[in-house]
Amino acid sequence: MALKTALINNLTNKIMNIDFKNVLKHYAARTHEKMKEVLMDPAGAGPAIHYYMIRGGVNQRNITVWEPGTISGEYIKTYGHYHVGELSETYEIIYGQGVALLQKLAEDENGNIIVDEVEEFKAISVKAGQVVFMPPKWGHLVVNAGKTYFATADDSPVDFEDRDPASFPGHADYELVKKMRGFAYYVVEHGGQPALKKNPLYKIIKKQDLGGLPVIK
Question: What are the chain's domains?
């Protein structure tokens, strides 16, 4: 009994000495209100929070957890973004199953991005234990296509000197995704399995690998 009490006291002392001053910088959540900007059906009903993040900064990995479910048939997903500069990113799937979407936008002769033309699009079905590499200049988002929560770890940097680093880190461009209300395809539930549905705002997709997923109207 004395040993048990000593262990509890030791643990309590350690907890009391933890520095929690950065907790608010590490934690971020994507609310339904924010996600409406990129949903297939912005008027669809969904959970108050779609996914949660623990930001690790440049020296640690970031952990993301998705809620399960759909909004008007579309699986819960991340907002999606393009990296600024030559930054790449690697995702490790920790738990559950999902679909990663990657796309590279076309450019004109002057190197300016054409927001409604996709040079190349990829859909990759993923599950626990797999790793997905997101190349520089490619946009990406990840979808929870399973019936449980979905979790990943990634090595994207976060600058805690940003004004609001846990919300929209400065290394990523979200505006291109917002303008097109998502990526070239939405991942939707069809017969209990993931399928793709084209986003009508995109005019051209020059090259695509749909990863064996069916496309529905």
Answer: 25-209 (2.60.120.10)
C-alpha–C-alpha distance, residues 77 and 81, integer Å: 12
> Could you tell me if 178 and 59 are in contact, meaning their C-beta atoms sit under 8 angstroms apart?
no
d(CA 159, CA 184): 29
The whole-angstrom separation of Cα 83 and Cα 157 is 11
- As to burial, measured by CB atoms within 10 angstroms (0-12 exposed, 13-18 middle, 19+ buried), residue 157 is middle
CA dist., res. 13 & res. 175, Å (int)? 46
Average pLDDT over residues 110-131: 96
pLDDT digits (tens, 9 = 90+) for 9-51: 554 554 445 555 666 778 889 999 999 999 999 999 999 999 9
